[in-house]
Amino acid sequence: MSPERMRSKMKEKGLQPPRPWNERNFYISNSGGVFEPYVPPEGDGKLSAVTVKGAKQKLEFVEKKGKSMMAVRKIKSYDDDFTLKDFVQDATEIYKNAHEALMNFRTDKEKLEEFVTEKAYVEMTENAKYKTVSWKFHQSLSPPKVVHARTNSVVSKDNLFAQVTVRFHTQQSLCIYDRFGRKIYGDENLVKDVLEYVVFEKHITEQYGSWRVHHKIIPDWMPASEPIPRTFRKPEPLPDLPDQPEDEDKSSDSSSKPDVAIATA
């Protein structure tokens, strides 16, 4: 049936012609940012609560705790089984599994995507494409704790994401090898104390949403780590040009000079 014939038939029955739709469905799997990032207090992990600065930090933490508790209540309204005590244990396992999956992400990308968001995946694998990472978790120096929690909507009010920041004070060992198998950073036998603030995110309005590593907060007062030296391929030496004999040089010089006529009286 031709389009004209179809149009006349639909007009006889009083039907509207179909409208062309160019819209495409899209799925938002992560927020792409951090809601009100947590600002770690300077000297965290070193100051005692007995000192003046330590007591001041405790007071500031209590003042900011109100918004976090409201966010926790919002999370519980969508997840009845959510508790901070159980979440801290789950977050520790997610943190370990994410770093263990990073060591084999070139052969099993799906496993790393199971524990980290798309935002964290790019940040973690950006400089590890041609490197070999050896990481090991030894022990926790202090129990991990939730220091920050926020919820926010993306695109629409019914599309909610939750972010919880966990403080980890642990002992770890890290060693990185370049693509030639040479050690360029760290040592597998060297255990270091590591203080980290890791943001976990979950799509709470999604039925099958799960907590994943989303971001790592690095405070300004934390000393910068040693830069990793970059490796390059050594260029091949240029071929040596053959030396010209001196006779050829003189003949070429004489031939290049123009002939000059000398006039005699």
In short:
The chain has 265 residues and is of the alpha+beta class. The chain has helices at 3-13, 52-63, 65-78, 84-102, 109-115, 118-125, 246-256, and strands at 132-154, 156-177, 183-186, 192-202, 212-217.
Question: How would you describe the overall organization of this protein?
Answer:
- InterPro entries: mtLSU_mL45, NTF2-like_dom_sf, Tim44-like_dom.
- Pfam families: Tim44.
- Keywords: Mitochondrion, Ribonucleoprotein, Ribosomal protein, Transit peptide.
- Its main location: mitochondrion.
- It is found in: Mitochondrion.
- The protein is α+β, with helices and mostly antiparallel strands and about 260 residues long.
- The chain has a domain at about 50-215: Nuclear Transport Factor 2, Chain: A (Roll).
- A hairpin with a 5-residue loop joins strand 2 (about 155-175) and strand 3 (about 185).
- It is about 30% helix and about 25% strand.
- Strands 1, 2, 3, 4 and 5 form a five-stranded antiparallel sheet that branches.
- Helix 4 (about 85-100) packs antiparallel against helix 5.
- The protein starts with a helix and ends in a 9-residue tail after the last helix.
- The longest helix is centred in the middle third of the chain and has 19 residues, at about 85-100.
